[in-house]
Amino acid sequence: MAQAWQYIRSLVFVIQIYVVMGILGILFAPWAVFSPRGARTACKLYCLWVLWTARWMVGIRGEVHGTLPEGEVMIAAKHQSFLDILLIFNVAPQAKFIMKRELLWTPVIGIYAKRLGCVPVDRGKGGVAIAKMVQDVAKEFAEPGQLIIYPQGTRVAPGDYKPYKVGSAILYEELNQVCIPAATNVGLFWPRKGILRKPGRAVVEFLDPIKPGMDRREFMAHLEQVVETRSNALMRQEGFESDAVR
């Protein structure tokens, strides 16, 4: 009975966050179309709404730990669900994401992503896509901001493993900026697919910065080790055992 009630609450929660996304997208559109500030204000408000309703509707307490990133930095984050996107965007002053190009054609999301300076990538096009990504990132960083990249390239469910892709290491070299790794356990409570949301403490944690100048192979090995190790630790704290590092 408790599981059925949680599913009903989850269904109502999911429906209302998409309804609110549409409402805010329409209300802020006249400002957002002409001003990145308008787009960012709408998205920040949406994050606050979702995080607030997640707490009292389905029992998910979103938390961000570690030193908050500021200035021109690259954030290399573990990606488990939509929730880690919301938590990072909510605290980063001027976040912009590396995102799959298909999202540009998504109603509301696509328009706002363009105004925020997000960088679309054609997944599956290898070196050509990476070269275009580096070019686009350099152009977008004419304005200060925090560039968020997901080194595994997709959402990864707790307990699953996907190798880290070279794109994050190439950007680390090309931008010559500090990289801030980010670990998470949010997939335990807000899954990458499905309706059911589970109550608990969903955390994104910013880890020790990686200074510029590290060799590409060394950087990738270090990034994967610290992010996966800390993510596994955060999940163990909530009763989930995982050893995703390979």
Describe what is shown at a glance.
This protein is an alpha/beta fold and 246 residues long. It has 7 helices and 7 strands. It has helices at 2-34, 36-58, 82-91, 109-116, 126-140, 167-175, 216-237; strands spanning 60-65, 73-77, 95-100, 119-121, 146-149, 179-184, 200-206.
Structure description:
With 246 residues, the protein is of the alpha/beta class. The chain starts with a helix and ends in a 9-residue tail after the last helix. The longest helix has 33 residues. The chain has one domain: Glycerol-3-phosphate (1)-acyltransferase (3-Layer(aba) Sandwich). The chain has a seven-stranded mixed sheet, sandwiched between helices. The protein is built from seven helices and seven strands, in the order ααββαβαβαβαββα.
- Kindly estimate the percentage of residues that lie in beta strands according to DSSP: 15-25%
Structural class: alpha/beta
- Give the proportion of residues in helices: 40-55%
Return the CATH architecture.
3-Layer(aba) Sandwich
Low-confidence stretches: none
Q: What order do the strands of the largest sheet run in, or round the barrel if closed?
A: 1-7-6-2-5-3-4
Radius of gyration: 18 Å
Number of DSSP strands? Answer: 7
Instruction: Give the helices and strands as they follow along the chain.
Output: HHEEHEHEHEHEEH
Report the span from N to C terminus.
39 Å
Number of domains: 1
* Silhouette: globular
CATH topology-level name: Glycerol-3-phosphate (1)-acyltransferase
Number of helices: 7
Going by CATH, the homologous superfamily would be Glycerol-3-phosphate (1)-acyltransferase
Question: What is the CATH first-level class name?
Answer: Alpha Beta
**What is the average per-residue confidence, as pLDDT, rounded to a whole number?**
89
